[in-house]
Structure prediction request, 723 residues.
Amino acid sequence: MSTVGQPERATQNRIIALFSDELGYRYLGDWTDRDGNSNIEEGLVSAWLTKSGYTPAQISAALHKLRTEADNHSRTLYGNNQAVYNLLRYGVPVKIEAGKVTETVHLINWQDPEQNDFAIAEEVTLRGNHERRPDLVLYVNGIAVGVLELKNSRVSIGEGIRQSLSNQQPEFNSWFFSTVQFIFAGNDSEGLQYGAIGTPEKYFMKWKEDEAEDSRFKLDKYLLRMCRKDRLIELLHDFVLFDGGVKKLPRVHQYFGVKAAQAHAREKKGGIIWHTQGSGKSIVMVLLAKWILENNPNARVAVITDRDELDKQIEGVFTEMGEAIKRTSSGRDLMSQLGQAKPRLLCSLVHKFGRKDVDDFDAFIKELEAQPSPTVGEVFVFVDECHRTQSGKLHRAMKATMPNAVFIGFTGTPLLKKDAQTSLEVFGNYIHTYKFSEGVEDGVVLDLIYEARDIDQRLGSEDKIDAWFEAKTKGLNDWQKAELKKQWGTMQNVLSSRSRMDRVVNDIFFDSSVKPRLSSERGNSILVASSIYEACKYFDLFQKTPFKGQCAVVTSYNPQTRDVTLEETGTNTETGRQFIYNIYTELLKDVDAKPGMTKTETYEEWAKALFTKEPANMKLLIVVDKLLTGFDAPPAPTCTSTNPCRTTACSRPSAASTAWTVRTRTSATSLTTRTSSRRSRTPSLFTPPSWITVRAGPTRRCCCRTASRRGKNGSTMRWRPSP
Prediction:
């Protein structure tokens, strides 16, 4: 007889038996009518601490400290939970008598999970404010660390999640959750979801492990995986983060990515962690760095990026998560810091390892290899976005400078053909991968919806153009003709033609009027230009539309007078440099620079903040290379790219394909860069679009995870994200 659809009571009885019989938890009973139910069961805590060899005075002092931190009414639930976690993680400092040394009472045995007291109670009635009764509460050594809400298969898991969220409100029983580290909700039809205190319903996660095993309910299977004694202790010890007011637990790919990297770190082996953009690589970095520094007393960790913006953000992420990190000012400063015992955690820019005055780079590398900089300790180097310049000359310099370091690369971008093999040679094999299709299936990132818009960029008759050029340049020598061709024959002039740009502007403005998220002013857009010049041209055009005052341009350009000092112009002409300079000068004239920031940085910060928080007042960002990948990117439901098509390599080395760059919003607060490729035996059937509008659409459940477009001949062309 099928058990699907049985009452919640039957599911609860089965789960209690699972914890008791298979996981080895003690069953504490039904606590519906029990008085004094608490998140800190002092009798159970005292019994375990006594068994662990602590004196009554130590136990009394530790319990008082624990209770004080858990019930601090001057802090929020987040603050109390963080304070309690620190006591669980690092122990409770107690001082029994004046003049004696402070001792540490450890509330959990992290080294030997089996020595802890795992227990489960059902129907734990919480009194104080409005009475509530969680279905199951998990206790470790008498301290409540998990709450599980169960529903029958006809009731959504979401109801159990919302029930736990309401229980955490002050008017109900927020006090109980100050010790709770895991919030679970499940039923027989949907399985299991988990989160931390304060996790919104939409960010509750699903565990995935041993997917081929389907002999029992997913609810049972994943409870067995997550709540196994050693796994639960490991998750508590190594995978809990407090990040600037948000408590975070790992997604399953982050957990297994860190576990795989730990194995490499033990063996002093490097490699590449390939996790798709928007899936939380920064959290993997933090978790791995913490583990390495804690488990190897001689270890040093240096995080290397290739952009100043990323360098600042890496520093901010580690700092907000409670890890002190030293941001170095130069390659020499980094090597000087690594030559000392402290600090153990540093970050730097890869460009700071280069030298501008080097004529013979190979000789420079040999010189570095002959006299490497001395370092103290075992150095682990995390290279963010390792597919970019780190695979080239600067990375060779970095490896020559630190020949004994272990290099671990992080990326989520498909590797270019010329860099793919080099990256593998530099870092080693893949440590762990989490591909785009997996992220879509798990709901970590959203699927892509492509809308191609074509503009012909080819010349009608190249012979006639050449004849015209020769006729007009008869009086010039060959060198002058070549220079003139460079000026007027560049792709910039083709891409920046007024008629083409007008069509792009009109198209974006039309979308803003008819697309629901945009027309309702609840969403906004990003336009990706191919150059700073083109971005400024677009910005100038949008100033003549209703987007004026609701549009901003964000590039790497910072106007300097010397940019145009040597420029020459005629009476009615304006060079490209002067045009960019004039646009930015006008843009920044009313901007007051914040302390420690330039006018450009102040303007960019303002634009990003308005774009994120007030989409109705900042409808469009025009960007070139900034805000396209990683955790720094603002949210946007629509992104338009005007970049020309490029050739990339797929995740399968043997597959070559024609591709173009597109970008879309993920389910987290970031944008992801995806390179979508089309493989066809008859490539002439489909012309790459001049620009592509991409939207984050609903997750489509299909076997091939492809997007499609109807071709002119009626056939459907398909392409899939790579890898």
